[in-house]
Amino acid sequence: MEFQDNNKSHEAEKPEEVKIKEYDKRRKNLGGMKTIPFILVTEVCDRFSTIGFHANMITYLTQQLNLPLVKASNIVSNFNGTASLTPLIGALIADSFAGRFWTIIVGSIIYELGLISITTTALLKSLHPPPCPSLVDCKEASSFQLSTLYLSLFLLAIGLGGTRPCVMAYAADQLDMSKSCVESRSWNFFNCYYFILGLARLAAVTIVVYIQDNVSWGWGLGIPTIAMAVAFMVFLSGSPLYKKVKPGGSPLVRVIQVIVAAIRKRKAVAPEDPSLLYQNQELDAAISVHGRLLHTTQFKWLDKAAVEKYGEATDSSAPNLWKLATVHRVEELKSFLRLLPVWAAGILLVTANSHSSSFNTQQARTMDRRLSNSFQIPPASMSFFGIMTVIIGLVLYERLFVPLVRRFTRNSAGITYLQRMGIGLLFNILFSVVAALVEKKRRTVAENHNLVDNPKATVPISVFWLVPQLSLHGMSEVFMAVGQLEFLYDQSPESMRSIALGLFWIASSVGDYLGTLMVSLIHEHTGHKNNWLPDRNLNKGKLDYYYWLVTGIQAVNFVYFVVCAWCYTYKPLEEVMEEDSVSV
User: Fold this and answer.
1) Is there a contact between 351 and 515 (Cβ–Cβ < 8 Å)?
2) Nearest Cα to Cα of residue 55 among 217, 211, 209
3) Helix, strand, coil percent values for the chain (each to nearest 5)
4) Can you tell me where the transmembrane regions are (predicted)?
5) Residue 151 to residues 116, 147, 157, 228, 505, Cα–Cα distance (Å)
6) What percent of the chain has pLDDT over 70?
7) What distance separates the 2 farthest-apart alpha carbons in the chain?
8) Which residues pair with 574 in a beta bridge?
């Protein structure tokens, strides 16, 4: 009887074991390349709609709302700054409790509401002033009309705060991004990601901008709105396939806990042997899925947070994390502190470029844009050349540059993240130099043909003079933008990756606000007669002086970056494998 009872008990457990095995099997089948199209379609349509509006936003503000150039350019820059600030909030929410999936969902809904709102401002005549084709004594948008615009831009910025820091990280969550697996691939995730976004941007600056300039702003803004709604439905349809990584709790709280614990033990003496510092794999399991961070010798005063005193840690209960931190948690903070100086170099880069898109569009508007007697290139579509450079440059980088350089460096990626970023900064300096020279040439031609006082006149110089500077800016993106994304993702702790990618946008935010401040000061203090950046007539300005100033700022920034890169130490990680772990 006893044998039979044991046998029945054993048989009763079998269904449970089967359920566990089926669950593990389903969990292992989640994620992978099959999920990437569902996720990237959200980012592609986000960029398609954002670029479709942003590329021509300066035209909408100056031609449809009749705003002065500097005021309109500052609105563009301030929108960029706000839309780049909200991703940090979205990243904190995602990494702390909501998770990336739900943060993307909510962000996409709010973003769609913003697109509907901005489209409405173009459709309803009461929401914009009457046309002013002469550009003389134009009636500017009223306070009510501007407030409607600001509400639309605010919704767009909030929505981007949910999608921008999470979509790329969520796509990477679906793949094995361990160092060994990344090195074994014949393709780079970040290059492919940026390449696909480049195609979306290309479609936006050609199709959408053409419709805005030649059909109507209602359709020009309505098409991106419809595209984003479709993308949202596609993203939702892929939900059963996604690997959903649970948030590991607030990274901000963990950082503060380490600092508090270190301050409390400021008089403690850290052991010379780092293996004596407190470690707890079970406690750190949720925030070290892909491997634990190993001890480093930088910021040694933080090690005191992991000095274990008698009675602080027991096997029966977790320690008070405000008094005792694990080595992994201490190293999370160290990793974050190490990458901040390098990240900061991106701020002045954005400051230098914050108004270049608006100014390039205004330059193109004054130049000869004819491709034939019946067709002119829309001014905002000139960014086509920069985007095409990015698309072609990424392919050449992946297929030619990396294999060639790898022979000399023995690095699987060809060059390091920091070297890639440094080359990008150099390309951007060249962009500013060429932009200054081209603007000087454009203004000289206007003076020689007595067109300085005619803001509507077409200066007899081909718009293709702008192509070299746009191409150099594209090459800067290939190296700097993609390199910075790789650097922030790889060098940040895995539980803070949304926040790290949020930092990418924070650099854009701070840079845009600084750019707005710089342009406002230049406009205010360069006088009325010889103003560098005049309100209506670019021919009377000194835009080339602005580009030379930007060149000097970038040169100083490059020196700062080289110093930071020279001093940087890459994070060491104990990578988790299926059967064992290995230090990398």
Assistant:
1) yes
2) 209
3) 70, 5, 25
4) 101-124, 149-171, 192-211, 217-236, 377-397, 417-438, 499-522, 545-568
5) 11, 6, 10, 19, 21
6) 90
7) 111
8) 292, 583
In this structure, which amino acid lies at residue 534?
Answer: P
CB 424 within 8 A of CB 481: yes
Above 60 in pLDDT, residue 8?
A: no
What's the rounded Cα separation, in Å, for the pair 431 and 436?
A: 9
CB atoms within 10 A of CB 225: 22
DSSP 370: B
Task: Write the secondary structure of 110-168 as one string of H (helix), E (strand) and C (coil).
Answer: HHHHHHHHHHHHHHCHHHCCCCCCCCCCCCCCCHHHHHHHHHHHHHHHHHHHHHCCCHH
Contact assessment for residue 141 and residue 67, using Cβ atoms and an 8 Å cutoff = yes
Q: How far is CA 176 from CA 30, 289, 577, in A?
A: 12, 12, 11
Q: What is the pLDDT of residues 503-556, one digit of tens each?
A: 888 888 888 888 888 988 888 888 777 788 887 788 888 888 999 999 999 999
Residue pair 77/515 in contact (Cβ under 8 Å)? The answer is yes
Which stretch of DSSP H or E encloses residue 293?
strand 291-293
Element (H, E) at 199: helix 189-203
Q: Answer with the residue of higher pLDDT: 470 or 202.
A: 470
Say if CB 352 and CB 472 are below 8 A apart. Answer: no
Q: How many CB atoms lie within 10 A of CB 369?
A: 18
Dump the DSSP string for 529-568.
TT-SS-SS-GGGS-HHHHHHHHHHHHHHHHHHHHHHHHH-
Give me the sheet containing 581-583, strands edge to edge. Answer: 291-293, 573-576, 581-583
256: left (phi over 0), alpha (psi -120 to 50) or beta: alpha
The Cα 360–Cα 73 span in angstroms is 11
pLDDT at position 22: 54
Give the amino acid at 75: I
- Give percent of the chain above pLDDT 90: 25
Q: Is the pLDDT of residue 23 over 50?
A: no
H/E element holding 581?
Answer: strand 581-583
Backbone angles phi, psi at 354, to 5 degrees: -60, -35
Residue 269: Cβ-neighbour burial (10 angstroms; 0-12, 13-18, 19+): exposed
Contact 374, 365 (CB under 8 A): no
Rounded CA separation 347/353 (Å) = 10
Q: DSSP label at 462?
A: E
